Queue: 4 jobs
Job 1
Amino acid sequence: MLLVNVMNKKIFFVLVLVSIVFSLVVFKIYKSKKESDYTYYLVQVGAFKSYDNLSTLSKKYENYIVREEDGLFKLFIGVTKSKEVYDKIIRMYSLTSSNYKKILRLNNRDFDRYITKLDELIKIASNQNETDTLVKEGLKELNKVLDNNKKK
């Protein structure tokens, strides 16, 4: 009888241990899904090996950011989550037909909320000045987030 009690305690202990491990795995999967990356579309209008080459094109734009990626200086003129806003930025700002839609994924809930609000405002912006201000703010915030991510 004593042997059965000891065996039951061992089985119970193993079952508790397996349950804890299983719960941790499920929680980790849930957390990773909950904090998944958000998708953004960046309007890229150029990529250059030297900053000097880029500066000629950048003079044509009022609102832009430059990021160095993969050994190239890339010029971005907009950031959005919305296809409608992306198309509006292309219509309003693109001076060439050679635009590139860069897909960017970030895990930053605050930035996501900010860009979502900007997108809604850009959609209803009634003039070029309003849109310019909103696009500029989005780019400025994107630059901050990317700089912070780079430091981590």
Job 2
Amino acid sequence: MSNPDPLYIYFLSMLYCSWCQLLSGLRTLTEVYKDLYTKKTVKSRELWLKLTNLTPYGVHSNWRIFDPHPLMVSRARGSRLWDVDGNEYIDFNMGFGTLVVGHANPALLEKVKQKLDDGTTYGHETELSYRLSEVLTRRYGYDMVRFASTGSE
């Protein structure tokens, strides 16, 4: 194999140096998206800063701690969320799986509204508690079930 041309070596070294200089000025994709998020979520940051005076880390769940600041949601419908800044997001979390029918599902909302018209907390047993107990004992083979709260809900 013959020795490479010195001009070729010079050209490659200059290309390499230029490439390194270019890369040294680039930011990581994470940094780019962090800056974009910060610019698009000014109201979320302001609300979060206020909340940090009232609750640890400004969130009510450690899962919501997010750098540079958590998302502050104002509403949701179907698979979409909107923050207090008006930005729209796809909700891939969906309440950790509890929202299989999506946020504010019209059919579910209608049923909830009907039940709210009948009153809320009675402090007594209802036909619905019987029906749900029946479904659960049949489906999972339980002898009995009891619905209770800890008082912290």
Job 3
Amino acid sequence: MWSTVAEVKTDVMKPYYLMALVWSYALLAGCASMEQAAAEREKLETEPLPQALASLGYEMGAPVEQVTGWSLYNWQAINQTALIIWVDAFHPYLFTLRERCPDLMFTQTISVSNTGPIINANLDSIVVPNPPGGGQDCFIDAIYPLSKIDKAA
């Protein structure tokens, strides 16, 4: 009926050991996923652009001079000279840049310096904010519509 101090202490400590085990596992899993993401990013940065796009499941169409009626739905940097911008959930475009834009790989946000609802190749730029108060203009060289690669083919 009466428990010893050692038994009570062991019963109280069991949940803490279990929580420590769960947190350790979560930390290891997080480190592994960060390592995997870094390896995938390095692969995208070093392989030729068509192969990088194919590894993301896309292929380039013929270049277009402009994108009309767009909004910045989502984006992903491919390397320092290319990024994908989704103008809505189903329409991604590859934007290649005239020069390297090193901050593109590290920024969380971008904007586009355009007038109105049109983005023009060779006229507009991708703006990468660079606090405090500045930014890097990365001028657009070409725009390519992207289509999903049919995996069944």
Job 4
Amino acid sequence: MTWVVLKEDSTDAAYSTDDGATWTSSTLPATATWSASLYAKDTYVAVASGGTQAAYSADGVTWLSTTLPSSQNWKKIIFGRNEFVAIGDGQAFAQSLDGITWNSKAFPTFTDTNTKVKDIAYGNGRYLMIGDKGTQGFYSLDGTNWVETVIDT
């Protein structure tokens, strides 16, 4: 297994093939505010905040550039249902089957329209998305149709 770390606001990255004992420098395809990375489906994927920049790699060493479908503060990537999902602060999220080609999808609107997407998780066959205010959340079995739920705090 190759471990990967990314440096914010640069093209610097590093990888380790010996469980973190030693690290080797590598280069990302663009200077960006790299905010999240993930390994799934034999692909490393990274997203950057404040734009449409993303990157992917088959080995964690050589990175190629790709583009997210909208400009926003991308902050997290998860993998579920055999797809990558990237979220930012907006109501749109990005979905990809391969980590290279991304499609825009929309979350439902929160009752409080000032609420931003805070987090998303996948487990037991469903996505759960929560906002940064209140107790309103949404779950989905397919990443397209969302059902409102109340998150009891």
